[in-house]
Every structure is written in structure tokens, then in C-alpha cells.
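pasting for ref
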Amino acid sequence: MDDRRATQPGDPRPMLRISGLTKTFPGIRALSNLSLEVHPGEIVAVIGQNGSGKSTLVKLLAGVHSADSGTVEVLDESGDLLVGPDALEHLHFIHQDLGLIPGLSSVENLGLGRRAGLGAFSPVRKRRERREAETLVARFGEVFDVTAAVSTLTAAEQRILAIARALSGWLTHDNLLVLDEPTVALPSGEVRRLFDAVRRVAAEGAGVIFISHRLDEVLDLADRIVVLRGGQLVADIETTAVDHDELVRLITGRQLADAPAPRAHSRGEPVLSARGLAGGSVIDLSFDLLPGEIVGVGGLIGSGREHVAALLFGALKRAGGEVVVRGEPLRSGDPRTAIRRGLAFVPAERREHGAIMDLYARENLTLPRLAPLRRRFGRLDRGAERRDVAEWARRVDLQPLDAERPLKLFSGGNQQKVVLAKWLRTDPLVLLLDEPTQGVDVGAQASVYALIAAAAESGAAVVVASSEAKEIEALCHRALVMRDGRVAATLARHELTEENLVSASLGLRQQDLDSLFGQHGDSGAAVSQKR
């Protein structure tokens, strides 16, 4: 039985009414005649491929952009239209980066933007602010030290703090909360805590717009789903009337085939070996990587999974152990030598560490390997560069097919295609991928999976470190599951299921599995946390 909130929105009065919203940028129509409503107590998911218009909608609501035509109306509890600052005070945004300052405490983050006034440093004022912070956090069923630095909080606690800050100072409940990809890199247990917090906000009468690429989460959390494609509204539908496959069809305009099972890889000597590897949250890691093999690395945040690829590549300096490439040790913390030895690394945070967003796609694509494009005396052969880039842009299906465009202007999925292509172009011996489809829509995800599979079939050894159990199951020949900095389990291809990956990550017993997945092994329920 579907136990959705008992307080289903029944008020026909909208709190947000969007009518005929259109926005055009040079050469592209980002939104076209969009109309939708959000009602009190309602959670509305807005989904679509990268470039479908989701980000433009958020920026129009936040006042970052102005619409070419159409209206955005915010109404109060009485149904009266709010304008100017009054309207903006009812709209609250939580972006992917959260906007928190890691070195400050929760109390200090909540106090940012307030007027200090006299007595701001008095003990009485500080005690009151701490109590207020604890009350806000407790509103979501959370208890953590609000005086500790935000950097010490879990990812879910940081997101809950961001919601608490957005809610701080609300005088009425007729507010709209906009959440942009709030579950990126969150494990399933943390997602459940965050969703409980969001449901509490909606149950109190607020409207929620939830933007996510994770369709299982959308189906779990939302009351209604709005699908955008190419800047246009293609569906506005009750969640109970749609399933995962139908959402994929609506988002992409076609049915996506399941990722093919990875082909058998060649045996032979390992191309990379790790022995007693330590660093970051990794305490002890040993394994061999064979040519053409795709090895998954799973585990919760803090398990060590998130540091494996960077340690192997040298982006993170080792605290112990060794990495051997084709029988020769690789020096610690030396990415330049790692590249010369045939290693390639795609980090999780492409904007910060994987690309130079202000450079053209062309420049990003050729940056790791310029030597074949140079003439005598080191001059770059522009014609050869253009031909090479055009070929790789075609191979990865770059959209739009315009390499003379700053990378920051591409959608997240197409940015990731460029980051992957720049390393595939080097013909790597070992391809190290950390969260390769993070923030990537279902259409681009299929393209990324195909590129990874093709690299392995051409002989590259691949490591895929991912928080997504489905991703590891779909792509990999085997998987290492990290827990407490060590390998807790090694799963062969026939053992690669969501149930086994999650249970190994959490260290669950069989009775725990029966409770989490159900007696029939409904592994999808574990990920989506059905209510």
C-alpha cells in the first residue's frame, strides 16, 4: 500500500503560478511557453535531460535571469498576489553547492546575513542563537552539535542545515522551497533522512520543487512530476500514474535499452596492482587490475571508496603502500608521471578538478595530449587540432556539436562527455573514473556507459568508483566493496546485485536484508526507500 502523506494537497489555490514562460539565449530557446502551478503542501518534481530547461527555470524564479515573456506569480495564504521583495521572501533556494561555509558552525551559518546589532557577542545572545539553531534542526528530527564546524557534519546533515537556514525566519508556511539536485553523492540512508525533512516541510503547508536526475527518488518523494524536454513541457502527471520506464521515455522521447552486460575480458598479466594502499579514508587496499576489465568500487561516504581513484592516479598522496603499473612502481603524488605511464583520471567534481570551464570544449579535449598536434618548433597545427576534435566530438555525440564553445555553456552530461573524451583520446592503459555519471541525465548516462564499455573492449583496464549500486551492477565485471577503509567484500559478476552491494556496504546480516529489501529481494526498494 502506498503510504504517501496523509495531508495530500487538496487546496485548488496555487501558491506559485507560472504562465507562458519563455526565455531565449543566443542561438538557443531554453524555455518555451512553460506553464505550471505548485500548491500548498505539494512536492513537485521537475525532471529532464541536461539542457531541458530546468536550470533556466530555477534562475528565472530566483531572479538571476529575466523572462522574454510570460509571468511568475507568487500568492500568499489568502490568495493575494505578492510582488517585488514580498514575492522573493516567499521563495527559498537550495543549490547543489548548498552555500554553507565549512569552517563555520551551524549557528554561525544560520546567522549569516542577519544584522548583528548591539550585544551580538554577548553570552546571552550566543545561547539564544544556539537554542534557535537546535530548535530548527530538531524540527527535522535531527540532533547534532550545532557548535561544531559544518565540515564535520555528514552530507545529509549539511543539507538539512541548508533547509533549516532556508526556513529560518518564515513567519507563515506559504513559502516555496526549491531543491536543486540535493541528493548528489548521498548514500541511501542519508537520502531517507533528507526526504523525511522535506516531507515535514511540505506537511506544514510549504510547496516544494524538487529537481533530480535520480528517477527512483522522484517516484518516491514527489506528488506530481513535471517533465521538460528541449525547453518545453511534455508532461505534468501524478506520480501514481507513471513508472520508471515511462519517465525515461518522456524525458528522452524514446525507450532506452538496458546497459548490455560487460563482455568477458582477456586474462593475462595485471596492468595495475595496488598493495597495502593507504591515504585519505583508505586504510588498506590491495587488488590487481587486468586488461579490458571493469572493476567497480562501492561503499558509503567515508568508506574509502571516494579516495581510491585519486590515490591510484596520484592526485591524492599516499600515506602507505604502493601502486605498480606493468611491473614498475609508480611514485606517489605524481599525476604527470601517471599520465606518461598510461593512467587517466576523471574526478567526481568535474567543474573543480576535471576541466577548465572557461576554456572552449576544443581546448579541454586536446589539453592532455598536444604533442601529436604540434609542428616543428612546437607550433600547434590548428587544422589538425580541429579535425581531431571534430572526430572526438562526433564519437561522443557532443550536443550541440560545437567545440568552439566555452565548456561551461554545455549541459552537465555534455561536459562529462568532453572530460571523458579528452582522456579516451590519450588511448589510456588504465581509466580511473570517480562518480562518472554524477549530475548526468538518463540520456547522457547511456552515452557515458557506452564509452566506458568501448574503452574496456579496446583493452583499457577500468576502475569505476561509484555511490550508485545500479551503476556498478550495470557496468562491471567484478566489484570491491569498501567499508571502514578496507575491502569488506569482493563480488564476482554473477554476485553483482544491488542487494549484495548494499548489504556489503552496510555489513548487514540476512535478517537485516529481509527487513530492508523484503522477503522477495526487492532491491529497488532499498535504493528508493519506498514509503
